[in-house]
Design brief:
203 residues; mainly alpha; 12 helices
Length: 203
């Protein structure tokens, strides 16, 4: 991805939620972007499954026609960063509609996730540990819920891009075409849930 360091906001909420209830899957899915090459052989088989789940989610999402439609709508303003912005938009809608998909309120879910990650901190890659500090400090997972939070997230991402970006204005893109992005999410996310349930059942 086109970022200058590892402290950036991505669609972590969706990845964590789609991992289900198994701690190794949650951990593997969370650390996947910080595991490169042969490093995958250094983790347990159960955590490895979470890493593969993360990559399967990314592959499914990147090729999905609804997500391609979302990216295309963003391309005139967001250019090469439209896939990144599309991911963050999806987390926004998951955050505000979380109770539609989960019996657990978002605040309790986030606390549960941080408890798991902190209790397993010893096995997290160093880059993940560093990111976790920022994630808790700035309340990333809950910030997705509001347009103000989205503006903060996207501006923070914009400051960390290697190339010039317009992500600092992406919250305005969301607000302007909010209903269209919401409809994209409402069609796409249930399909992603089914994909993940089937994938987890198969591993």
């Amino acid at each position: 991805m086109f970022f200058s360091n590892e402290h950036y906001f991505m669609n972590y909420l969706a990845h964590l939620y789609l991992s289900g209830d198994e701690e190794p899957l949650i951990i593997g899915n969370f650390i996947a972007d910080h595991i490169k090459g042969r490093q995958i052989n250094e983790v347990s088989k159960e955590i490895m499954k979470g890493i593969h789940l993360h990559r399967a989610i990314d592959a499914y999402t990147d090729s999905h026609p609804i997500v391609l439609q979302t990216k295309e709508r963003l391309r005139p303003t967001q250019g090469k960063y439209s896939p990144v912005v599309a991911d963050v938009f999806m987390d926004h809608f998951l955050a505000i509609k979380f109770e539609e998909f989960s019996p657990t309120p978002l605040d309790f879910f986030v606390d549960y996730i941080f408890k798991i990650l902190k209790s397993n901190e010893a096995i997290l890659p160093s880059k993940t540990k560093n990111m976790l500090v920022y994630m808790q400090k700035d309340n990333w997972l809950k910030a997705y819920r509001t347009l103000e939070g989205m503006d903060f997230i996207l501006k923070a991402m914009s400051r960390r891009t290697i190339f010039a970006s317009n992500m600092d204005t992406a919250a305005s893109d969301l607000e302007r075409d909010y209903i269209l992005y919401e409809k994209d999410y409402e069609v796409f996310f249930p399909q992603l849930q089914i994909f993940c349930r089937d994938y987890i059942a198969s591993i």
